[in-house]
């Protein structure tokens, strides 16, 4: 299953190489509110040209009203999602039918974990194992339903229908443009829940509270993502990549408002906390940890929930950052002793890893050293301004646009 997904992802996101990982998408949120790419027409094939945000003063979203780059607006005409709609969009020159904005079909903007949008003519349905409808459907309510029944895939259709299954016949059910799946969920109009005769399919790992990762690269989402994380969540994920000497962690989206909720990265064998993030201390750069085993920990208290985070990690072997650029893991050579001395400047972490200790993993007692209570008092870092997503959605009015 994982290899099927990997093949799918790598063929889907094959256009450009990113600084980290093989996920070359420009979007890590389900609705592309984090899209900061440069597509300036509503579709690459025969789309309408987008208007410049610094010239759309007849409409609610423009650079006079949002002069500080809120929602990614600026003196450009790139597709954006400043109001938390289901997809990035832009204003277009007025049409005769009264249309003055359009969703953008952006191939490079697809949250990892979405397998795609597929046609469903019902015979057979793309995901056939379990089926439910709900007037309060959200992406995560469907994913949770399927995950709790141990299915690997969850599909949403027409805003209120949820399907579960383990396999999807990509050939039988053609891939459709994401626009066809941009019907708002009945339980949250900002999330896409498929369309008429179209099902949007997610990996049920999205938004799970914990998990075990061994791939050299993957994306991990906060619990309940893309919904807000629930109160009282305590989750941990193990990231253990045999043969790795360095694992890099890039938080591509981070929206945690309060100081009690937090994310930690722990060295796997010692359970030593190497990085801690919360509302006042969001991640500002990539975290390098020289180890082959890291624990990601999340805690939320009983108030003030937020959307959480998405994080991509990439493991490397080799002893310099130069070789790290090319050093994808080959799993048969674990004789090399890791002697990585990653530059300890600016918040990065230097740790020795010992590949001969790999077998400890199966016996390790997951001991989270910093209990939430303890952490309240020893909060590192200082107030340096909000995380890049903190101002998002909160001060922008909803419709009309
Ligand atoms: C982290 O990931 C984002 C999204 O892929 C990317 O734009 C950014 O450049 C990465 N950060 C670094 C330092 O590579
Ligand atoms: C869109 O961007 C491309 C490349 O940057 C540019 O050549 C083109 O003129 C732009 N189109 C519009 C409508 O601004
Ligand atoms: C808007 O921005 C574009 C690109 O920076 C610029 O060419 C144009 O003159 C600007 N329009 C106004 C009204 O300032
Ligand atoms: C991860 O592995 C641990 C230890 O083997 C196991 O107890 C736990 O259930 C696993 N978690 C998941 C989500 O598979
Ligand atoms: C983290 O590792 C990357 C790749 O090895 C390197 O480019 C970057 O400079 C490192 N960052 C720090 C702060 O050492
Ligand atoms: C690695 O672990 C082995 C066995 O636990 C130990 O003998 C060796 O000194 C360790 N090497 C390093 C670099 O820590
Ligand atoms: C690690 O575990 C594997 C299988 O679990 C075993 O074959 C191997 O001998 C172990 N290696 C060490 C160094 O204990
Ligand atoms: Ca909280």
Give an account of the 3D structure.
The chain is mostly beta strands. 8% of the residues lie in helices and 24% in strands. The chain is built from four helices and 19 strands. The chain has helices spanning 2-12, 139-148, 321-326, 372-375; strands at 89-91, 101-103, 114-119, 130-133, 153-157, 161-165, 175-176, 184-185, 188-192, 198-203, 211-213, 217-221, 234-240, 246-255, 262-267, 273-277, 287-289, 293-299, 308-316. The longest helix is centred in the N-terminal third of the chain and has 11 residues, at 2-12. Residues 1-19 and 320-399 have low confidence and may be disordered. Bound molecules: 2-acetamido-2-deoxy-beta-D-glucopyranose (7 copies) and calcium ion (CA). Residues 1-19 form the signal peptide. Residues 338-372, 391-401 have a biased composition (Polar residues). InterPro entries: CUB_dom (IPR000859), Kremen_rcpt (IPR051836), Kringle (IPR000001), Kringle-like (IPR013806), Kringle_CS (IPR018056), Kringle_sf (IPR038178), Sperma_CUB_dom_sf (IPR035914), WSC_carb-bd (IPR002889). One of its GO terms (biological process) is Wnt signaling pathway. Residues 111-205 form the WSC domain.
């Amino acid at each position: 299953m994982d290899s099927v997904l990997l093949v799918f992802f790598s063929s889907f996101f094959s256009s450009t190489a990113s600084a980290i990982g093989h996920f070359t998408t420009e979007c890590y949120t389900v609705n592309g509110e984090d899209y900061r790419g440069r597509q300036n027409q509503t579709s690459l094939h025969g789309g309408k040209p987008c208007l410049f945000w610094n010239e759309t003063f007849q409409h609610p979203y423009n650079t006079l009203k949002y002069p500080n780059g809120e929602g990614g607006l600026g003196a450009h005409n790139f597709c954006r999602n400043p109001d938390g709609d289901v997809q990035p969009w832009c204003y277009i020159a007025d049409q005769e039918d009264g249309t003055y904005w359009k969703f953008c079909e952006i191939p490079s903007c697809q949250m990892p974990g979405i397998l795609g949008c597929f046609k469903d003519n019902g015979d057979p349905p793309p995901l056939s194992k379990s089926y439910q409808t709900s007037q309060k459907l959200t992406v995560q309510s469907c994913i949770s339903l399927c995950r709790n029944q141990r299915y690997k895939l969850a599909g949403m259709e027409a805003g209120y229908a949820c399907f579960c299954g383990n396999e999807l016949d990509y050939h039988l059910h053609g891939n459709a443009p994401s626009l066809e799946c941009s019907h708002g969920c009945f339980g949250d109009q900002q999330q896409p829940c498929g369309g008429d005769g179209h099902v949007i399919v997610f990996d049920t790992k999205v938004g799970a509270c914990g998990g075990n990762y061994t791939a050299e690269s993957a994306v991990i989402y906060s619990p309940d993502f893309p919904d807000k994380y629930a109160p009282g969540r305590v989750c941990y994920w193990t990231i253990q990549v045999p043969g790795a000497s360095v694992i890099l962690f890039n938080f591509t989206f981070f929206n945690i408002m309060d100081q009690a909720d937090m994310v930690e990265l722990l060295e796997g064998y010692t359970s030593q906390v190497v990085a801690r993030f919360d509302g006042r201390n969001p991640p500002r750069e990539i975290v390098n940890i020289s180890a082959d085993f890291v624990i990601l920990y999340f805690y939320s208290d009983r108030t003030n929930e937020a959307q959480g985070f998405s994080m991509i990690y990439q493991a490397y072997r080799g002893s310099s950052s130069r070789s790290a650029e090319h050093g994808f893991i080959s799993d048969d050579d674990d004789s090399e002793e890791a002697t990585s001395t990653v530059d300890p400047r600016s918040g990065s972490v230097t740790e020795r890893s010992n590949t001969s200790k790999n077998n400890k993993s199966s016996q390790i007692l997951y001991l989270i050293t910093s209990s939430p209570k303890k952490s309240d008092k020893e909060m590192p870092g200082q107030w340096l301004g909000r995380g890049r997503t903190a101002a998002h959605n909160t001060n922008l009015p909803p419709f009309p646009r």
